[in-house]
From TrEMBL:
InterPro entries: ATP-NAD_kinase_N, Diacylglycerol_kinase_cat_dom, Lipid_Phosphate_FormReg, NAD/diacylglycerol_kinase_sf. Keywords: Kinase, Membrane, Transferase, Transmembrane, Transmembrane helix. This is Diacylglycerol kinase family enzyme. Belongs to the diacylglycerol/lipid kinase family. Residues 121-248 form the DAGKc domain. It comes from Pseudonocardia hierapolitana.
Length: 449
């Protein structure tokens, strides 16, 4: 099976070239200032170096860390500006600030992947299933049903007490040749399961609250209406599905502390990385008594865990950019991430990030002496052991609107700051950065086992 991978567009090549050229010119200008405005120029050179490093940190990091990087860059530039203003050097000051700003913007643009997916035939009788309560009524706010009708897509809206699985089966029996879902990831999983079983194209409409599946598929979560174009002139991407005890999941299944978090009010604002990182430090003494028996890739049997997360393809975890996302959903592998129970190996609770065990596999099993609470794509469920996981490679034919990225935000972003310039050089040359540059973190996670 051939699957599309992230490609380098002309826009990305240009952005990467501009980023590299601007970085070089900015450093050269700073060196010239250091020489001509000595000794204050040396301070300016140091400030520019700090600003470049901090701005780059803001490029290859996400969330709060990106904000910190940008703030440090601005602070360093302010100090450098104060030194130049003392000498009345306004032109070099403006050029340095402009250079760093252009470099930062160009580097970010270079890492925004866009996949050109193979063209696919337009379905003649597609059906869209809408969960009107998802995302605070997002579907109604954007007039999704009317927009779908304008594109020849029939809409089925859920009502209280409706059985979504039965509604989907009825639609297929009536001749639906394409299935789309507008709602949370639980809704997406049900519709995607039916599409996979019947070999029908599927479209993910990001009308839920978090839309994790849409994010990793490369659907623009801010363009709910535009996502409907997947069934107009969209391209096709064949992706995997996960399965636990015969039930399909599109994102992940959690056990232990993370499964408990799924049922809490604060879960909607929580992130996978945050929960995994903090598990050992917030887990109480009873955490070591969780009966979750599993084996690591080296064959060692374990009798407990603070948190186990099994995902449809591996997540990028830790503190790298794109953390909590999956670079790809077509590798034919489950991702397994485990935070050991307190006291296991004698180290739990001392530096949570270093305790995260992560590996890839096609199948995984967990045993227990009692029913196991799980969070399946954010839904609280209890299953009888053994809990068996497997990957369904190439199970789902996803259609994605041509104007949407078609790739995860972490598909082309390097794990480490120091690899960023190598990645930029590859993009400027028209090449996708090699896996050893993009996914060093994944290798380290595998090696620690």
């Amino acid at each position: 099976m051939t699957v599309p991978a992230a490609s380098v567009s002309g826009r990305q090549r240009a952005a990467a070239a501009v980023a590299l050229l601007t970085a070089v010119l900015t450093v050269v200008l700073a060196v010239v200032v250091a020489i001509t405005d000595f000794p204050e120029g040396l301070g300016v050179l140091g400030c520019v170096a700090i600003a470049l490093g901090a701005a780059w940190f803001g490029v290859v990091r996400g969330g709060r860390q990106r904000g910190v990087g940008i703030a440090v860059a601005v602070l360093a530039l302010m100090v450098g500006a104060a030194l130049l203003i003392r000498n009345g050097s306004w032109l070099p000051l403006m050029l340095l600030v402009l250079g760093i700003a252009i470099w930062h913007a160009a580097a970010r643009a270079a890492f925004q992947a866009h996949v050109h997916l193979p063209a696919a035939d337009r379905p003649r009788r597609p059906v869209l299933f809408v969960n009107p309560w998802s995302g605070g009524g997002k579907a109604a706010k954007v007039g999704l049903a009317d927009e779908a009708a304008a594109r020849g897509i029939r809409t089925v809206e859920l009502h209280r007490g409706d059985d979504l699985e039965q509604l989907v089966r009825d639609a297929v029996a009536e001749g639906a040749d394409g299935l789309a879902a507008a709602g949370g990831d639980g809704t997406q999983a049900i519709v995607a399961t039916a599409a996979a079983e019947h070999g029908l194209p599927y479209a993910c409409i990001p009308a839920g609250t978090r839309n994790h599946f849409a994010l990793d598929l490369g659907v623009d979560r801010d363009d709910v209406v535009g996502a409907l174009d997947a069934f107009v002139d969209g391209g096709e991407h064949i992706v995997d599905l996960g399965e636990v005890n015969g039930r399909v999941f599109v994102n992940n299944v959690s056990m232990g502390l993370y499964a408990e978090a799924v049922q809490s009010e604060g879960y909607r604002d929580a992130k996978i990385r945050t929960l995994l990182d903090t598990a050992p430090t917030v887990l109480g003494p009873a955490g070591s008594e969780l009966d979750l028996r599993w084996s690591s890739p080296d064959g060692v049997a374990h009798t407990s865990a603070a948190t186990i997360l099994v995902s449809n393809n591996p997540y990028r975890l830790g503190r790298a950019v794109g953390s909590g996302t999956r670079p790809r959903i077509d590798t034919g592998q489950l991702g397994v991430a485990v935070v050991p129970a307190r006291g296991e190996d004698g180290t739990a609770g001392h530096g949570p990030s270093s305790l995260l065990r992560q590996w890839s596999t096609q199948a995984f099993q967990i045993d227990s002496a009692q029913p196991v609470p799980l969070g399946i794509d954010g839904e609280a469920v209890v299953l009888d052991p053994p809990i068996r996981f497997r990957i369904r490679p190439g199970a789902l034919h996803v259609r994605i609107a041509p104007q949407h990225p078609g790739a995860s935000p972490s598909a082309m972003q390097p794990d480490r700051v120091v690899d960023g310039f190598r990645a930029l050089a590859a993009i400027a040359a028209g090449r996708v950065p090699t896996p050893d540059v993009l996914h060093r973190q994944d290798h380290r996670a595998n090696e620690q086992l």
